[in-house]
Amino acid sequence: MSEEATKPIAPEPAEDVEEQEAVETGVRGQANKDMQNVSGFDADDKGANVDADKLGKAMSFLSEASQQQKDQKSARDKELAKVTIGKEDLELVASEFQITKAQAEVALRENKGDVRNTLRKLVSVA
């Protein structure tokens, strides 16, 4: 083999730069430029700027709000459980609106067992 065949052929530097500039145009090029401009990020300081007192207050507030919602739902469920409904009324509502008996029971209890109001509410919703 000759010396010329074993030498690696290197492209001319000017052509290589032009090709790279052509590749870095458009969205990808802009993204690359933006990534090079990003500064001020330190991976070790991920939680250093968090105020523990404010975080504690926020968590406490969220916990209290969640507990309050649970208490309201529980009180509502207890109120609805006190309402008596007739088996015939339950079957009537379930069959007329083609809903489950559980859904019909909730609708009747929300309307204090009044079949007329329950039917009106279900008609206006549908």
Tell me the major beta sheet: none
- Note the gap between the termini: 88 Å
- Helix and strand string, N-terminal first? HHHHHHH
Mean pLDDT: 80
Radius of gyration: 36 Å
Unreliable runs: none
Number of strands: 0
Which structural category fits the helices and strands?
mainly alpha
Q: Which range best describes the helical content: under 10%, 10-25%, 25-40%, 40-55%, 55-70% or over 70%? A: over 70%
Total count of helical runs of at least 4 residues:
7
Q: Which overall shape is indicated by the principal axes computed on the Cα atoms?
A: elongated
Report the portion of residues in β strands: under 5%
Biased composition (Acidic residues): 13-22
Protein name: Nascent polypeptide-associated complex subunit alpha-like UBA domain-containing protein
Pfam families: UBA_HYPK
Domain Nascent polypeptide-associated complex subunit alpha-like UBA: 83-123
Written account of the structure:
There is one protein chain. The chain contains seven helices and no strands. The chain has helices spanning 3-6, 13-23, 26-37, 52-82, 87-97, 101-110, 115-125. It has a domain at 83-126. It comes from Geranomyces variabilis. InterPro entries: Huntingtin-int_K, HYPK_UBA, NAC-like_UBA. This is Nascent polypeptide-associated complex subunit alpha-like UBA domain-containing protein. Residues 13-22 have a biased composition (Acidic residues).
